[in-house]
UniProtKB/TrEMBL annotation:
Keywords tagged on the record: Methyltransferase, Transferase
SUPFAM superfamilies: S-adenosyl-L-methionine-dependent methyltransferases
InterPro entries found in the cross-reference section: SAM-dependent_MTases_sf (IPR029063)
Keyword Transferase recorded: yes
GO molecular function: methyltransferase activity
Presence of the UniProt keyword Methyltransferase in the record: yes
Pfam families: Methyltransf_23 (PF13489)
Single GO biological process annotation from the record: methylation
Organism of provenance: Catenulispora pinistramenti
Designated name of the protein: Class I SAM-dependent methyltransferase
Length: 234
């Protein structure tokens, strides 16, 4: 594997398959529903076949690495905490662990989850029965939530790249509570570039804050950034 391929693999598992799905979408061979179906066909069996809670959330490391890769999200939480929606909750492991790390930092969050995969959402309910009525199955890009949330966390790779502007606008207008915070991440990105953040800034959003942590690949960092709805536009 050459250096570029190794970097791409470290940034995103299944990157070759995801690239092919994105090419099919760009060429008009599949529509948005087809894009979601193809991505789900890739990740759902892999997550469901995972033999530990991290693998069932798409992470290949041990518990210590999960913490290094995800605990930076505590930096993104407002000190007052509040309701926290994990968009793409998979088996609910981030809902669970982030709630504990936040509590250790003196921040109380109430976790909620949504996943486009009915099977993964059911796994989350099975593993966290106390939260069963807080975990929904839906495509976040077209979801009318039964309530709003103080903090909404998402990845931007949950929709085809050309749909990201509409997706962000939908999360901010229809899912986030007034005065709430939209958190993007954790994603893997080159340490010396702010590619995703600049794309979101270019849409006219003001980035209210950012955080990062050391990634096992020397060229990459784990990153997250956030937009506060009160001053979302720059
Ligand atoms: C990498 S896992 C994230 C697990 C965990 N939330 C985390 O941050 O580590 C991504 C999850 O997002 C879900 N997902 C992808 N697109 C989605 C969409 N449009 N709406 C809701 N969930 C989506 C996938 O089914 C998958 O379970």
């Amino acid at each position: 594997m050459d250096d570029a391929a190794e970097l791409a693999r470290a940034k995103e598992r299944g990157w070759r398959e995801i690239s092919r799905i994105n090419e099919d979408y760009a060429a008009g061979r599949i529509d948005q529903a087809g894009w979601h179906d193809a991505v789900l066909a890739l990740i759902e069996p892999a997550y469901l076949g995972g033999d530990n809670p991290r693998a069932q959330s798409g992470h290949s490391g041990d518990a210590a690495r999960w913490r290094r890769a995800r605990a930076l999200l505590v930096d993104a939480l407002p000190v007052g905490g509040g309701t926290f929606l994990d968009v793409g909750c998979a088996n609910g492991h981030l809902m669970d662990t982030l709630t504990g790390w936040a509590a250790d930092a003196g921040i109380a969050i109430e976790p909620f989850g949504i996943d486009i995969s009915a099977k993964l959402a059911q796994l989350a309910r099975d593993q966290h029965p106390a939260w069963a009525d807080r975990i929904w199955t839906a495509n976040a890009a077209a979801w009318s939530p039964p309530r709003r949330f103080d903090i909404v966390r998402t990845g931007l790779d949950y929709v085809p790249a050309p749909r990201r502007p509409d997706y962000l606008a939908h999360l901010l207008a229809n899912i986030l509570a007034p005065g709430g915070r939209l958190v993007v991440g954790v994603f893997n990105e080159e340490s010396d570039q702010e590619i995703l953040e600049q794309q979101v800034s270019a849409l006219g959003y003001r980035i209210a804050g950012r955080t990062r942590a050391v990634h096992p690949h020397p060229a990459l960092s784990y990153k997250a950034f956030w937009i506060d709805s009160d001053d979302a536009s720059s």
